[in-house]
């Protein structure tokens, strides 16, 4: 179970996971070795699952972002779950409850690219697409 100090560490690491143990320690008044022990415990317990990066997809030329709901054709859900992460446009994929089965966050270069992706995904089920205008 994470205590108050662990929660402070997690908040700081979420903002910048590249900080050294010394820098983390200065922020929460702990020695670097104490911080290292806490971070290792958080990793070993599975609270910290991985470290990652956030990519600015617009700077890579993917100027359109969208959320997409997919209502998979009957009997095809397992197959679609296996295939969906192989699409490079899919940045996040979640199995959801309700009348739809899958919620996707996608990035594409253009409206034509979005149309091509929709054509591919429509072979798996019915789609509903919501263009993202901005992040709040």
Q: Could you give a quick summary of the protein structure above?
A:
This protein is α+β, with helices and mostly antiparallel strands. It is 38% helix and 21% strand.
| Count of spatially separate domains | 2
Q: What's the average pLDDT?
A: 94
SSE ordering:
HHHEHEEHE
- The CATH architecture of the largest domain comes to 2-Layer Sandwich
Low-confidence stretches: none
Number of strands: 4
User: What's the overall geometry?
Assistant: elongated
Number of helices: 5
Main sheet properties: 4 strands, antiparallel
Tell me what you see in this structure:
The chain is an alpha+beta fold and 136 residues long. The protein folds into 2 domains: 4-44, Arc Repressor Mutant, subunit A (Orthogonal Bundle); 57-131, Lrp/AsnC effector binding domain/regulation of amino acid metabolism (RAM) domain (Alpha-Beta Plaits), CATH 3.30.70.920. Helix content is 38%, strand content 21%. The protein contains 5 helices and 4 strands; from the N terminus they run αααβαββαβ. The chain has helices at 4-15, 21-28, 32-44, 77-84, 111-121, and strands at 64-72, 90-95, 102-108, 125-131. The protein has a 4-stranded antiparallel sheet with strand order 2-3-1-4. A hairpin with a 6-residue loop joins strand 2 and strand 3 (102-108).
């Amino acid at each position: 179970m994470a205590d108050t100090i662990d929660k402070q560490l997690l908040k700081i690491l979420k903002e910048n996971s590249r900080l050294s143990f010394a820098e983390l320690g200065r922020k929460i008044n702990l020695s670097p070795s104490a911080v290292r022990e806490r971070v290792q415990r958080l990793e070993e317990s599975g609270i910290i699952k991985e470290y990652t990066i956030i990519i600015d997809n617009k700077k890579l030329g993917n100027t359109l972002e969208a959320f997409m709901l997919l209502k998979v054709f009957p009997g095809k859900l397992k197959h679609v779950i296996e295939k969906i992460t192989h699409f490079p446009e899919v940045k996040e994929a979640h199995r959801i409850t309700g009348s739809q089965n899958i919620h996707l966050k996608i990035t594409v270069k253009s409206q034509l690219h979005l149309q091509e992706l929709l054509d591919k995904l429509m072979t798996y089920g019915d789609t509903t697409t919501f263009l993202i205008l901005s992040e709040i």
